[in-house]
Amino acid sequence: MIPLRTYLNPDEMPTHWYNVVADMKNPPAPPLGPDGQPMGPEQMGAIFPMNILEQEMSSQRWIEIPEEVRQIYALWRPAPLCRALRLEQALGTTAKIFYKYEGVSPAGSHKPNSAVPQAFYNKEAGTKKLTTETGAGQWGSSIAFAGQMFGLPVRVFMVKVSYEQKPFRRSMMQTWGAEVFASPTNLTEAGRKALAADPECQGSLGLAISEAVEEAAADKETCYTLGSVLNHVLLHQTIIGLEAKKQFDKLGLYPDVVVGPCGGGSSFGGIAFPFLADKAAGDKRANNLRCVAVEPTSCPTLTQGAYAYDFGDASGYTPLMKMFTLGHDFMPPGIHAGGLRYHGASPLVSQLTHEGLVEPLAVPQLATFEAGVQFARAEGIIPAPESCHAIRAAIDEALKAKVTGEEKVILFSLTGHGHFDMASYDKFFAGKLEDFAYPAEAIADSLKHLPQVG
Ligand SMILES: Cc1ncc(COP(=O)(O)O)c(C=O)c1O
To answer: For ligand 1, is residue 268 a contact (CB within 6 Å)?
Structure first.
């Protein structure tokens, strides 16, 4: 009998993060500066401390998790691997569905897995203040919590649409001692420009990044932190997949499909990369492994974007990164999975998608909420709207298995709970949510503004 929950003992928590760069067929495309030339750590030192930049550029396969970070991880990790037996029964599927539950963290999602080490490395490097942006509020609350753990003040630029939809996320950040502003603000040049163009601007993750980067660049003692996209963030998140592998070992099972929601790509990389490591090492169990990255049809970066160099923010302050992108000035609609409203995707996830190792999938908003409600009614946990994207894809995989009678093992990442997202659920129940497929012409238009490189 497979247990409903598989735990690890505290001393079984992984001691090292896994760096997928060590196993990639082609080296990652380097970030480029404004002159189109590859950028080294020195040039990015204005906004990040050197110890983090070393990780960002590293190709070392295993990187030790500092003891101070492990002590804070131990507040909620190891996280459980759960079997969704009641969901399987409700679907009548022959598949076995498992989920790795990251909602047990203080902030309620996977984001503290990177917030804690980022705060730790900044503290170690002598940084006096952190700035960041947040979409859904998950990253902002995570870095607020992590800053508090290491005594670092935190300033958060929160995308306006989420600031208004999720006032309690703001209160959470304030409880952990952070300052929070609805972006665009009048505090930065980037914010003032956006407001001058459109006083009602709802903001975007790209714009909030510009504000946070601008502040960090203007002050030597302030550094910027990013909750997704960059290599070091995905590195930290591999604790998810590394734990899940140990838990599957205990069960004597191995997944056939690994599914995760994909915004910037950090939780997806976190759960998928350790399994891709097995594939790279020639582990037979991973021969037919599929890794599915799920995004909204309203912000279809991996499925409809271009694989090209682009800025990570709306104003062109960040280095150019080679990634799937919808164009840095792409303004996604105000959908209710705020964490998936980003024009780009992690360069690592993008490259692996381009090389065929990651399978991208776009799903519409209403179908994700239907899946989230079905999951909550079977399993009890109310998922974050971002996580509902993975649930949709996992349910569809299970329904396909039902037709073929396959005993497929499906693993998905339940990246967070939805306790601060109930206003979105209310709208769903009231029939006020809509599907939105971004028109191909609008995407093509936005892609016309990609920077010309190479
Ligand atoms: C619960 C949850 N899941 C997933 C995501 C997507 O981010 P990423 O792709 O970096 O994991 C977010 C982003 O805020 C989130 O809050």
So the answer is: yes
Centroid of ligand 1 to alpha carbon of 143 (angstroms): 14
- SS3 for 82? strand
Sign for the pseudo-dihedral over CA of 33, 340, 280, 118: positive
Q: How far apart are CA 51 and CA 154, in angstroms?
A: 19
pTM of the predicted model, to two decimals?
A: 0.97
Indicate whether residue 136 lines ligand 1 (CB < 6 A).
yes
Residue with tokens 């649409």: 161
Cα 263 to ligand 1 centre (Å): 6
- Residue 294, SS3 per DSSP: strand
Token digits for 225? 């932190």
Ligand 1 atom nearest the C-alpha of 135 is: 14
Residue range 50-62, pLDDT digits in tens:
999 999 999 999 9
Nearest Cα residue to atom 15 of ligand 1: 339
Q: Is 264 in the pocket of ligand 1 (CB under 6 A)?
A: yes
- Tens of pLDDT, residue by residue over 293-326, are 999 999 999 999 999 999 998 888 889 999 999 9
- Is 3.40.50.1100 the CATH number for 71-108+232-447? yes
Q: Is 315 helix (H, G, I), strand (E, B) or coil?
A: coil
Q: Whose CA is nearest to atom 11 of ligand 1?
A: 267
